[in-house]
Write a structure and sequence with these properties.
Length: about 190
């Protein structure tokens, strides 16, 4: 079943139309509606630019969607999009952490070196020839984290950076953790 997050605002007729279209599509989905006005980070990210419909962690529609377009989009076979091309979707609790087969499938999409620890968090050590390069990488990770509004724990030492990721709101792993890990890898490989 596809996970669908609908970012909305109160008294938004386009949001109501999007919700109606999703329900009328005939596609069984796990629908979660999030009012962006309840979270300053979401207000900053979306403002009045709603509704936004995210399907399985990937933004699929913005502003308008009809039932047929939604159904076609969800049912269409998707080419595997690299995680690094996705956007981190804010998680505010109320959803279960990623576990089991779904977790393993996401972990297989990451480059070597990422460890899944107790199905709770991701961890990877990066090595560098000196402190300056480790610090520069740390700053690059910080910039990615700010852009994505998803922030890892970062340990910096001479020639070494350890990144630890998990979603605090659900005390476990979300798709966003894997997306951020892939973005960090993409930056490190440049």
């Amino acid at each position: 079943m596809n996970r669908v997050t609908l970012y909305t605002r109160r008294d938004c007729h386009l949001c109501d139309e999007a919700k109606t279209a999703i329900r009328a599509s005939g596609v069984e989905v796990d629908l979660r509606e999030v009012d962006v006005d309840t979270d300053p980070d979401l207000v900053s990210r979306y403002g009045t630019d709603v509704p936004v419909i995210v399907v399985d962690g990937v933004e699929a529609f913005r502003h308008r969607v009809d039932a047929k377009a939604f159904a076609d989009s969800v049912r269409a076979p998707r080419a595997q999009q690299p995680l690094a091309n996705e956007k981190c979707v804010p998680c505010h609790g109320g959803v279960p952490p990623v576990k089991g087969d779904e977790l393993r499938a996401l972990a297989q999409q990451l480059s070597q070196g990422w460890r899944v620890v107790h199905e709770h968090h991701l961890e990877k050590d990066f090595t560098f020839p000196d402190f300056a390069q480790a610090l520069a990488f740390t700053n690059e990770v910080g910039a990615i984290a700010e852009e994505e509004q998803h922030h890892p724990d970062i340990y910096l030492a001479w020639g070494k950076v350890r990144i630890t990721l998990w979603t605090h709101a659900i005390d476990g792993l979300s798709r966003g953790d894997f997306v951020l890990a892939a973005k960090i890898d993409a930056r490190h490989q440049r």
